[in-house]
Amino acid sequence: MTGGTFDRPKDHYLLMRITLPLIALLLMASCVPSRKYEEANARAKTMQAEADAANARARDAQAALDELKGSSEEAQRRLARLQQDTTILGTSLRNMTGQYDKINALNNELLDKYNKLLAGSGSENRKLLSDLEALRLDLMNREDSVNALSKRVAMDRAALAEREKELAALQAELAAKDAAMKSLKDRVSGALTGFEGKGLSVVQRDGRVYVSMENKLLFPSGSYAIDTQGRELIIKLAKAIEGEKDLNVMVEGHTDTDKVQGGGAIKDNWDLSVMRATSVVRLMQENSGLDPKRVTAAGRGEYIPVDPTDKAKNRRIEIVLAPDLEELMKLVKD
């Protein structure tokens, strides 16, 4: 080639040497890629089928997971309601909370295995699916336990409500009894106004009314015969309480530590305290409508003094007026 033109024979020869191998190479290239494309296309279809199968398994796993999540959320709502129970049901609630925590832990483990399932190989997927099924069954069993515990808590709550109702009835009855005893105390004090401050006291204590009378208001020294002043006092008291149909009356005789003198029918302070109490009971019965079945006479002797340094105070008759608690005891026993 000179001055920009080919030397024709020589240049034509060179062109042929270059063109023929290039054409042969192009022919070979056009055949090879066609076979590789078909092979690649076949592999792609195979991989697509595997991918579709993996996606189907993933969707199934997701559906199972959604179902388990729904169960877990329901368990959470039930647990929240149970945690609002009264302190008397605290133990049951704590047990339920423990079950719920285990369910959460299993759910977390389930999520972890699901994530591994998405990222794992075929053999790993089969193992994880097996583990997922085992966890699902475990979750169902634990939810059954929570449901059973919930039923027990409901039964306990019903029983507690019933006991609270009974307690309210008992408290109302006690309040009514206390009010009745206060009214009785006021009525007795009013009936015996002329004697208070002269060795007589009327007090309300421990749900009872105590009427204490020193012996100087009732008996001569060493005697169990009630004198005129004492008869007036006892009869007024009997009249004040005779209308109380649910009242128990205990008449107690008390003495000092001095020994009984003489050798008559009264041998000692036991005898004297009993005889004085009996005299009071008899006088009350003869002059009122008191039910004899509700009246008791008891001798205490010298053994329950109110003031060890004052013998006059220890020589006394105490009349204890107590409400009939039989109905209350039935409420307690029931």
Q: How many domain units? A: 2
Q: Which range best describes the helical content: under 10%, 10-25%, 25-40%, 40-55%, 55-70% or over 70%? A: 55-70%
Largest sheet: 5 strands, mixed
**Number of helical segments with 4 or more residues:** 7
Strand content: 5-15%
What is the straight-line distance between the termini? 130 Å
Poorly predicted runs are: 1-7
Q: Structural class of the helices, strands and pairings? A: alpha+beta
H and E order: HHHEEHEHEHEH
Overall shape: rod-shaped
Primary descriptors:
alpha+beta, 5 strands, 60s Ribosomal Protein L30, Chain: A, 2 domains
Q: Mind explaining what this structure looks like?
A:
Mean pLDDT is 80; it is low at 1-7. A five-stranded mixed β-sheet has the order 1-2-5-3-4. It is α+β, with helices and mostly antiparallel strands and 334 residues long. It has helices spanning 8-82, 90-119, 122-191, 228-241, 269-286, 311-314, 326-333; strands spanning 200-205, 208-214, 247-254, 295-301, 316-323. Helix content is 66%, strand content 11%.
